[in-house]
Each structure stands twice: as C-alpha cells, then as structure tokens.
Specification:
- The structure holds 2 protein chains of 2 kinds.
- Chain A is an alpha+beta fold.
- Chain A has 3 domains: 135 residues, Butyryl-Coa Dehydrogenase, subunit A, domain 1, CATH 1.10.540.10; 119 residues, Butyryl-CoA Dehydrogenase, subunit A, domain 2 (Beta Barrel), CATH 2.40.110; 154 residues, Butyryl-CoA Dehydrogenase, subunit A, domain 3, CATH 1.20.140.
- Chain A is globular, with a radius of gyration of 21 Å.
- Chain B is α+β, with helices and mostly antiparallel strands.
- Chain B has 3 domains: 134 residues, Orthogonal Bundle (Butyryl-Coa Dehydrogenase, subunit A, domain 1), CATH 1.10.540; 107 residues, Butyryl-CoA Dehydrogenase, subunit A, domain 2 (Beta Barrel), CATH 2.40.110; 157 residues, Butyryl-CoA Dehydrogenase, subunit A, domain 3 (Up-down Bundle).
- In chain B, the strands form 3 sheets. In chain B, strands 1, 4, 5, 6, 7, 8, 9 and 10 form an 8-stranded mixed beta sheet that branches. Chain B has a two-stranded antiparallel ribbon with strand order 2-3.
- In chain B, helix 4 runs antiparallel to helix 8, helix 5 runs antiparallel to helix 7 and helix 10 packs antiparallel against helix 11.
- The termini of chain B are far apart.
- The chains are: A alpha+beta, B alpha+beta.
- At the A-B interface, strand 8, helix 9, helix 11, helix 12 and helix 13 of A face strand 11, helix 8, helix 10, helix 11 and helix 12 of B.
Amino acid sequence: MRGIDVFSRPLEYLTPLGEQVGEIIREWVENEVIPYRRRFDEDYLEHRLILPPFKKLLGEYGIQRILFPEDLGGWGLGHSDYLCVAAFRMFEEIARADSGMAVAFGVVFWPLVLICCEPHVNRRLCEEFAPMFTGTTEPVFSCLAMTEPQGGSDIENVEVLKGSTIRTTAVQDGDEWVINGHKLWPTNTGGVADLMAVVCTTNPGSRNPDDIAIIFVPCDRPGVTQGPAYEKAGMAADKNGDIWFENVRVPLWYRACGPGDDAKYYGEVVSLGNMGSIAFAVGVMLNIYEKLQEYANRKVYRGLPLKENDAVAGVLADFATTIEAVRIIGYQCARMCDRQDLYGPRWSPEIVARARAHRYFAADRALEAIGKVMNLMECFGPDRDWDVEKHWRDIKMVQLWLGGKQLSQMEVARWFFECETL
Amino acid sequence: MNDLELFPYPKNRLQKTDLDLAASLQDLVQKEIVDKRLELKEDYRGLLEPNLNKLLVEVGLQRMFWPEKLGGEEHNGPEAAYTVAAALEQVGRADTGLAYLAAHNLALQASLAMRENLNQEACGRFAPLFCDGRGPVIVSFVLPVFGEDEKAPAWRGKSFQVRARAASGSWVLNGKGVRPTCSGADAHLFGAWCAVEGEEQPAFILVPGDAPGLSRGPEFKKTGLAASRNADLDLSGVEVPAENCLFRGDLEYRRLLSWFYLGVSAAAVGGLLAAYQILKEWGDNRVIKGTGNVFKENPLTGALMGEIAQDISMSRLLAYDLAGMLADPTTFGDAGSDMVYTAALMIVHHVLATAERALHRTMELMASAGYAKEWQLERYWRDLKTVQCYVGSHELAKHDFARWFYGARTL
C-alpha cells in the first residue's frame, strides 16, 4: 500500500537538516504520540499524556534550541535561509499525529523568531533567554500574547488599526517596563508557557507604529497570572487561556526589536503563523490519507474493495488532489518566507497577504475535503477510533485562528487590489 | 416578533395544536436545556437523560401516534408530519441529539400506527411500552451500511448488518460488530432491517434491548451527539417472536425512512436556529476594526450573516415541504413511494449539507468563540456533522436519486 511519501514536494527546496529532523520526528510520533492521541481530548487540562512526549522531543532531543545561535548552544537555524522549509517538514510530521501538538511545538519558536532571526537578531535577548532553552532536558514553552477581550483579531490587523485598539499597556518606569492588561487565547498558556512575548502599546489609542511594543516576559514574574485552559472543540494539546498582567516589571531591553521595528516584524510572525498553519493542514490530511487507504481497502462494496467503486474513487481522487495542491502551495509559501533575497522581506504587506491567501485557501480546501471523507465513512466518520473526526475538529481551528478568514480576505484584497479603505 | 418567526415556514398549514406544542416546547427546552447547558454542558445523566424523559414521557412525544384505546394520543393522520416538524425543530434548537433520538421514536410510531396503515397487532404489542408512562423508550435502528465484509448480503449496494432466519414461531438473528444509528448503549428497542436467509425479501424486525443473545460493546467516543451513547452490538442467535417482524417490503421500509428523514431534517433546522440565535447576539455586540461598528454592519461579515440566514430559511422551508408531502399522500403518494422517499432523502441530505456549511460559516465569523465550548456553538457543529454521517453517504444517496430521476438500474 502506498504511504504518505507519495505526495509531491518541491524537492529542490528541501534541506538535509530538515529531512533528517523530519525523519526523527516521524519516528517520535509513531512511538510517542499516535498510540496515545485518542485520549488527548480528556487530557486537555492536565496534559499528563501530552507533556511526556514533548519532554522527549523538545528537551531530550534538544529541538527547542534550534533557533538560537550555535555559540549560545543552539543550532543556528535563525541565521539560515532554510528555516521555514525545515519547519514546514517538522510541522507536517507532528500534525500528522496531532495538530494541537504541532501548534504547541511551533509556538515554542514563534516569538523567538523576533530575536533569533536575521536581519534583526537581538543578541542581548538571545544571550538572556538561550540558557532557558539550551540548558535543560525539560521542555520549555513560549507563547505570543496578542488577542485581547475587546475586538479579537483587531490586534492582528496592524496594517489598518496600527495598534490603536491595543489595551495592554507598557509604561516606562526608570529602566523597566510596567505592563498591565489582559490577553486571551495564546497557544501554550493555561499554565504551560515559561516565556511569553506580549503585544503592548506604549501610548493607548495611538496609531503610531513606534508605540506598538512586543516585550518578553518570563512567566514567573510577579503580577503574571494564567487562568486554566479553555475547553474547546478540539486541539487538546494546545492549551489556551487568559493571562492577566498586573504591574508586571521587566527590563527595558526586554523589548524585542524596538520602536517601529516591533510593529514591522510583527508582520513576520503573522506570515510564519500562516505558513505553519498550512503545514498543519497538510499533516492532518496525510494522516487521513493513511486512514482512508485502510478504510477503502478493508471495506467491501459489491464484492470489491470500496476504492474500486467509481463514485467512491471520485471522492478519493478529490482528497488526494487536495493534498497534492495544498502541500505544494505550503512548501512554496515556506520557500517564499525563507528566500527573502528573491521574494522580499517576509514581514512586508505583500508576503503577509500571500501567506494569508495560501493559508485560508489551504484550510478551506482541507476542511471541505475532510468533511467529505467523514461523510464517505458514514457512521465510522465521527468515530474517534478512526481518528478522522479528531483531525476534522482540529483543522477547523487552524482555519479560524490568526484573525479568522474575513481578516485574511481583507488583507489579501488590500494588497492584490490596492484597496485603501478596507 | 419571536426571532424564530423571522424564518418563514408554512404556518398556515399547521394546526393550532401544532403551534401550541411548538410554543410550549420552545419554553420548556429554553428553561430546562438551553439555560442549563453552560453549567451542565453535555452531561448525559445530569441534562440529557432527564430531558429525554420530559420530552418523550411528560410532553408525550412517544405517545403521539398510538391509538387512544392503547394509551396514545392517536394523532396518527398524515398531517402529524407538521407536528413532527414543529416539535423536533424546537427540540433540535436545544439539543440536536435529543431531537435525533426523538426522530427515531416518532418514525417507528409512524410506521406502525399511521391511520391508513395501522398495524393493529404490532400496536397492541408495542404501544403499552410507549404509553405506560414508566420512562422514555429509546429506539434505535440497525440499517444496511456502505461497505462491510465481503460475505454480507446487500440491499441496493449496502450491506446488511444482521441476518435473520425464520424458525418455528420466531426469528433468529445474528450479526457481529453491528453499528446502530444511535444509542447502542441505552436503546430499549432496535429496529433492524435484516437479510433473510434463503429469501430475497428483507425483514424489519424489532429486537428488545434485553433480548437474550444481544450484547452491547462499550460506549465509543464520537464527534458529537452526546445524547446518543452509542455502542456496537453483537447478536448471537437472538430469538424474538415472529410477530416482531413488522414488515418485509421495501414500501414499508421506505415509509419508515421518509418519516425518519423528516424528523432528522427538523432536528437539523433546530440546530440551525440555535446557531442563528448565538450569531445574532455576536453580531449585535461585537465591535470590529476599532471603529465602534458592530459586526453585522460590516459589509463582508454582514453579507456572510445574510447568507447564513438564507441557508437557514431554505432549510426550514425544505423541511416543511417534506412535511407537506408526507401530510398529503393523496397528492404526492404514499410516504414509502419511490418519489416521496427520494424527495425525503434529497431533503435530509440537502438540509444537513447546508447545515454543515452554515455552521462552518457561523464559526468562521465568531473565530475563537466559534470553537470555544463556552459559546455553545461548536456542539451544534459537531452534532450536525455526526448526524450527517449517520444518515449515510451522500455518494450512495446520489445513486438513489439517479435511480428515480434517470431510471438507473445497476447502481
């Protein structure tokens, strides 16, 4: 029976490191995740099943150190021009088992991009935080705190709102920032995160990009309170909760990139978040392909395996076609984010818009295709023992996060059609 | 105006008793289910089971069709189709799973106790169970499925899950790893459409949940429908009286399904109406783009909300159209006729596909709140998708459409 490696990838984009780590992760998910994942939904608060495999991957294998410079104990991927393609491979391998774990894994690195990646490496912050990640075999989690109770995705809508709706404040007091505010939904909250990057304003209501500040806050600082994980439709491995900041003090130099640059490079995390989301969709579909292979071979219809029926084959073909197309788009998106010399900076409105377009196309197609697979499987489609329904629930969240579809549509229209008032 | 009245339906064709029932159910489910679900979530023992009892026993949905002399309401004319639609959309608004269970119960009643096709003997045997007021009767079906083991006999391409053998004064049933349409862990009665050994004509046989030889597997986890605690069954030489075979013909089987699909369609419309109410609150209050504009006033999100309302309206009209066809056999033919059955199958698939799309879009509009359990929307999304899968593959249903419209013979 053909396996998941039959689907196209632009081979010229692949890198030895990404492939090697990808193989390690494939073995890890087979042994450490897939056997246990059907019980993850009930583990959403405690993570008793979810944390041990992360300890192995992040801490013991040391993958949590990959972005930091080599002289600080990292693998130096932040200096490479293949970070995104390598990340895409890792993400799809993890998402094949559990896309909740894939996002929790991805967000470990998400805020670190702001300080570890060229051309805006913040050496002092790298030196400050590298030991957290490189000096332990315990898993270390980061989070990027953006969304607030009012306005939801308005925070992510930097190009239009320019930070004017941010209510989490950072006020300078001597050589420290004093942070106050309330954030919702960041991945790796609910008590998981050790380090967070917080999107703040230094001047509430201002539309000056200089006033958008992304400030790193170790989660054990006095005044940081995390609520319990929300109960969601899926993605139990991705804990989301409230975070309250009450007079939280950190040094001034904990600001990621500085006035103007925080706002500018915020676009970069949006691009990378969208790129990663496509990898999650691909990973999920690859696993469903495996499940569907098993189902369509095992079930018999009119004396032949189900797959031999023309009508069924039509659905199978559509599913395979979706994987083919989405995977190629995803790798192209990753390559675009890597090769800034060819495509321009990945924080530019152009790349942000392209990545948004790729992501929402991928998520829409994946969701539609998986829904049809569930329907084909009739009463076994919603059965947890077949794993397809779990992926269906999870991929819906991939479609909705990062400001949701409508914000993506606006950003795409704004760039491609030069809309000025959206 | 009651916000549910915004969505048109043929109110003029409903009797006052239907409207009164719908109004009282609307109040009941609001108080007993909707207002309590934030606290009780999808708790079976705490929320769903007690309300199943309220709906089936106290309100009396499980007595609706049976003859009065047997303790029923004898509301058993074809016009009861409107009652089913009006009642189950209200129940479905509160909990799609409860409405799905009630749809099974009402379809079985309709197939046995409908005035024009009253099965006196079966009514005499089974009505007391439904009418004695001792508790809800959970009815489940065991239907042929799309793709099974190679040796299973087939009906219209689907494989029978249960085989029956006629014995002296009884039927003996066998089936392994049988998947019922709901409540395998709880059902009191299983209606199984069985292959009959040595005969071409299948048989619809009722199997009591406590029949010797019937064993239930553990409840399995699934996407939604918490009200239906499902489990696979093994039937090992299960013997039931010969009278438990309710019918042998396709006509009666299709009649049962037509009524079932009406109930399911109405349940789905209920889920859509619930989604509307949740989205309306969101659209009224959510401010976007920092401009002070609420969600519904934005041209893009407002248009999408409009499209969702269109989907709900069309689904409601279609469900009531099906009720209208079942309510008027003189004009449209028997509920088990090819035309009415095909229409019922088309409508239930269309409504469920539309519901899936509308729920997807509602969730898109609400972003994270769409998938947070706190907002109560995602459960309808999970429930409706689960119902869609249990109703069966759209691919095979399309073959039924092709049989009727194009005269396809070998599909």
